[in-house]
Specification:
The complex is a heterodimer.
Chain A (H helix, E strand, L loop, with lengths): L1 E11 L2 E11 L4 E5 L6 H8 L7 E7 L10 E4 L11 H10 L5 H14 L15 H14 L4 E5 L7 H18 L2 E5 L3 H7 L2 E5 L6 E6 L11 H28 L1
Parallel strand pairs in A: 3-7, 3-8, 5-6, 6-7
Antiparallel strand pairs in A: 1-2, 1-4, 8-9
Chain B lengths: L1 H10 L19 H19 L10 H13 L2 H33 L1 H14 L8 H8 L3 H25 L3 H9 L4 H38 L5 H10 L3 H29 L5
Helix pairs in contact in B: 3-11, 4-5, 4-7, 4-9, 6-7, 7-9, 8-9, 9-10, 9-11, 10-11
Classes of the chains: A alpha/beta, B mainly alpha.
Bound molecules: adenosine-5'-triphosphate (ATP) and magnesium ion.
The site of magnesium ion has 3 residues of chain A, from helix 1.
Chain lengths: 255, 272
């Protein structure tokens, strides 16, 4: 399914957080959102997923939803958001229990996503027994279980150490190769953005506006072999962001 | 120069001083019982040697003998059963109502704004002062005792429950909403389990209050029950029986606290 944001603006009281955002996320595409701290990326993601109402503008989903989708817009959170009192499979089943699909189908879906994320042997583990990377894998499995049309990922790798981040990034690329999911991916990390994004939207400091939309044509699976080009892209992005980040930094200090 | 380099480390050698540790009490199952045994042994020794007169403290072994007599006469259960029933009925009513209202106060703005001041106003009232009122409302028999214990456990349960609900991680609730869970599912599968640790630790306080109120109610109007037994012993200055009654209450309290500990370990084994 395609997702279109039309003239999205949003305020929190006096504070204008987002101004006139227009963005398209086409099916099978990963769109990265980068921008300085506090510019409204998480807010935008909450608006997209319907967790908050935009002050003005529209968010439109169009096209055929994936077969048997249970939750078209599905989040993957920075802090994993796993229920600590449920096991790995219990956490996945949480997302399925409210749908009348029957115990057998639920079981099958859980088994299937566990094996797709290589978590089968951890099915009965509690979140506290898992490392950060494993927890995020569980969250990814939970998201896959509801067969989302668009995945909304808010800095999914930020809470992880750099090695785990690299591993998980490769997993995500792998997953995309196999299943071609659609995603809106918020990140601070420009290296992640150029590895994963088909389009990268650079937001300005608050109020967040789209400063530029950078497209990267290299197919995801070949990016490993084009590190030079990616480095150049990353440098361009950084130059775009640098002033904004500097200014945003000073704003926070004076606030 | 090379000389100095060799000298320097040997001159200022100093082991790094340990300054961490502490601030993390660990469970130590053996110490508790040992303390009890020591206290009781001291009492026994003191009363036997005459260092403590029989008027000050009864001899523990005599207290124990009195307890055995009470058990053999069958009177123990005649006092214990009504007390346990009152405790169970009253606290189940108070705690379930308290958890219910606590969750509502934790979830709904209007209920919170409207009822929190009422709860705050009822909380500090010594409930025992209301016993005459309850006797008029619910009768001199069991009704007034149930009501007293129920009200006494109700308010602390409300306060601990809504606090526990407030403390449930909002990001988990957001997650539930983002997966399209119904309101009822979110409450049942996210809010309640998340609030359970706080609710259970509130339960310890509520049940201790319940025991205190139970005895107070039984002292003011009952022919059977631990409270009545203690009152009778006290008015006769029968220290052995008084201590038997008090010990039963202590044991009851410890048992309840142990039970809650067991429940916590079972239900909260997901915590590290
Ligand atoms: N619920 C809220 N009420 C009021 N202000 C809010 C709320 N949520 C966010 N804000 C403000 O809106 C601005 C944007 O917040 P947001 O979390 O979307 O930024 P972000 O780009 O995700 O930042 P970060 O990079 O630090 O994650 C911030 O200034 C924040 O203080
Ligand atoms: Mg954010």
């Amino acid at each position: 399914m395609d997702l279109r944001l039309e003239n999205i603006s949003h305020n929190y009281g006096e504070i204008e957080v987002l101004r006139d955002i227009n963005l398209e996320i086409n099916e099978g595409e990963i769109v990265c959102l980068v921008g300085p701290s506090g510019c409204g990326k998480s807010t935008l993601l909450r608006l997209i997923g319907g967790l908050e109402r935009p002050g003005s503008g529209k968010i439109i989903l169009s096209g055929e939803p994936p077969k048997n989708t249970l939750n078209a817009l599905t989040y993957i959170f920075q802090d994993f958001a796993l229920l600590p009192w449920r096991t790995v499979s219990g956490n996945i089943s949480l997302a399925l229990e409210d749908h009348a699909i029957g115990a057998k189908a639920t079981r099958e879906i859980i088994d299937e996503v566990l094996s797709r994320t290589k978590l089968t042997e951890f099915a009965d583990a509690l979140p506290r027994q898992l490392s950060g990377g494993m927890k995020q894998r569980v969250a990814i499995a939970r998201a896959l279980a509801v067969r989302p049309a668009v995945m909304l990922m808010d800095e999914p790798l930020s809470a992880l150490d750099s090695q785990t981040r690299e591993l998980l990034l490769e997993d995500l690329i792998d997953l995309w190769k196999r299943e071609g999911f659609t995603a809106c991916y918020v990140t601070h990390n420009l290296a992640e953005a150029v590895r994963l994004g088909h389009k990268i939207a650079v937001l300005s400091r608050r109020p967040g506006q789209i400063r530029q939309l950078v497209e990267i044509d290299i197919p995801l699976e070949e990016r490993k072999n084009h590190l030079d080009e990616l480095a150049i892209k990353q440098q361009t992005l950084w130059e775009l962001m640098r002033e904004e980040a500097l200014a945003a930094d000073k704003e926070l200090l004076s606030a | 120069m090379p000389d100095q380099n060799e000298m320097a480390p040997s001159k200022n050698r100093q082991e790094v001083e340990f300054r961490g540790g502490g601030f993390s009490p660990k469970p130590m199952a053996i110490i508790g019982p040992v303390v009890f045994v020591v206290i009781i042994a001291l009492m026994e020794w003191g009363t036997r040697t005459g260092w403590i007169t029989n008027l000050t403290l009864p001899r523990p072994s005599d207290v124990f003998k009195t307890f055995i007599e009470l058990y053999q006469s069958g009177l123990l259960f005649e006092h214990l059963l009504p007390s346990l029933t009152r405790l169970a009925v009253g606290s189940v009513m108070g705690i379930s109502a308290g958890i219910g209202l606590g969750v509502l106060i934790g979830l709904f703005t209007l209920i919170r704004a409207g009822l929190l001041p009422v709860v705050a106003a009822i909380f500090p009232i010594p409930k025992i002062a209301l016993l005459p009122l309850f006797i008029i409302w619910f009768g001199i028999d069991e009704g007034s005792k149930y009501a007293l214990i129920a009200l006494g456990t109700f308010t602390p349960t409300v306060v601990s429950t809504y606090g526990a609900v407030d403390n449930v991680d909002r990001s988990l609730i957001r997650m539930g909403q983002s997966f399209g869970l119904s309101w009822f599912s979110i409450v049942r599968k996210i809010v309640l389990p998340g609030a359970l640790p706080g609710i259970l630790s509130g339960l310890r306080i509520s049940l201790a209050i319940a025991i205190i109120l139970l005895v107070a109610a039984e002292m003011l109007g009952a022919s059977y029950g631990i409270g009545a037994y203690i009152l009778e012993a006290g008015s006769l200055y029968d220290l052995e029986r008084l201590f038997v009654g008090v010990s039963i209450l202590s044991i009851l309290g410890v048992t309840i606290s142990w039970l809650i500990g067991r429940i916590e370990r079972r239900l909260l084994n997901w915590r590290s």
